[in-house]
Amino acid sequence: MTLGSKVAQDLPFLRRYARALSGSQLAGDNYVRATLEAALADDGLKAQFEDGRVGLYRVFNLVWASAQAPRETEMVAAGIGLGENDAPEDQLQKITPLSRQALLLTTLEEFTSADAAEILGLEPDDIDTLVRQAIEEIERENAANVLIIEDEPLISMQLEELVRSLGHDVCGTAATRTQAQEIVAREMPSLVLADIQLADGSSGLDAVDDILSLGEVPVIFITAYPERLLTGHTLEPTYLVTKPFREASVRAAISQALFFDSKSSAE
Predict the structure, then answer these.
(1) What percent of the chain has pLDDT over 70?
(2) Beta strands across the sheet bearing 239-242
(3) Rounded distance between C-alpha atoms, residue 33 and residue 49, angstroms
(4) Tens digits of per-residue pLDDT, 105-137?
(5) Per the confidence metrics, is the pTM higher than 0.90?
(6) Among 107, 76, 95, 128, which Cα is nearest to 259's?
(7) 170, 223, 228: which is closest to 194 by C-alpha?
(8) In b/e form, how buried is each residue of 208-231, taking b as 16+ CB within 10 angstroms?
(9) Domains in the chain, ordered, with CATH?
């Protein structure tokens, strides 16, 4: 397999990470594109792709870090502080970015602490510390009202228990698009967890479109085929979790989605 083919296999998952980290499909996909462009212009960076998925994410991290550092330096030099009404992009500077990266790498992307450390240029023990910090931040989050759209009863129950264990409320569970419409007619959720293929042949994508036509709500899709929604060619979800999922992955995705929604919620 050629190097290009190997990179192409891993790109959908790098897009997933980049979107979750930046809070937007557009920004995340742009960072991925910048990563590839940087590697094409620098043989040293390109050579790191030979290390497989770890190497690809390591180059991405270099691009991400270089993009964040100048803005943070300028703000500190100017003595500018960040308040609760700052834009989501500026909120990135309010908490330790590395803690969020470490959490996403070890949960959503399922890297080991050793691999995450190599990606971020740290020691494995540092990763464990950062993950603990990120979990502490999650535990301080405000409660959300969550709608679960899932046609498998056991998975739906598991998600409901997980959501409640994080201190959030569940406004309802739906197995079909119609059921989701009925729940939203009674109460608008502040977060949606949705499967793609539903029991009656309806689509979780369509159910979410119905909800988004009524107002902006962060959505996390949970699917067995994430690569189908990570092409970078069309309008696609920002947050994706792969089935079968780990609870830690869902927890991290919920935290990240609510973090970027906090500004609009406050308003």
Answers:
(1) 87
(2) 169-174, 145-149, 191-194, 219-223, 239-242
(3) 15
(4) 999 999 999 999 999 999 999 999 999 999 988
(5) no
(6) 95
(7) 223
(8) beebeeeeebbbbbbbeebeebbe
(9) 3-138 (1.20.140.160), 143-266 (3.40.50.2300)
